[in-house]
């Protein structure tokens, strides 16, 4: 098993964040207080901290002709799970920063990816590799 990571990030509204991560993304809730909430984010611990003054608009980088938020986090899903998740996000009416699409099609690093924002403007990327062994392939 891979070692889980922990990520803490600022939010402007804890209840909106709880609704987004728990009900839309599907994260279970762990410990919480009036200032923070822990979520089980695909086996990793993320903590939303109520700290609106820490929020900043993410700068963008051009990647494959698309504007990718530089500051982002997310999860790498299994291929069929990613496609089901993408369809569910579309059905939920997510306003995508980058619509679900395939990168590096037919190449060793072939991957599916999408970007969208949480209610506080934190950018999330969900991706999947057609061949998981190519997660770190450079060519």
How would you characterize the overall build of this protein?
- The chain is α+β, with helices and mostly antiparallel strands and 139 residues long.
- The chain has two domains: 6-52, 2,3-Dihydroxybiphenyl 1,2-Dioxygenase, domain 1, CATH 3.10.180.10; 60-134, Roll (2,3-Dihydroxybiphenyl 1,2-Dioxygenase, domain 1), CATH 3.10.180.10.
- It is 18% helix and 42% strand.
- The chain is built from two helices and ten strands; from the N terminus they run E-H-E-E-E-E-E-E-H-E-E-E.
- The strands form three sheets. The chain has a four-stranded mixed sheet, with helices on one face. Strands 7-10-9-8 form a four-stranded mixed sheet, with helices on one face. The protein has a two-stranded antiparallel ribbon with strand order 5-6.
- Strand 5 and strand 6 (66-69) form a beta hairpin.
- The longest helix is centred in the middle third of the chain and has 13 residues, at 79-91.
- The protein is globular and about 50 Å long.
- The mean pLDDT is 94.
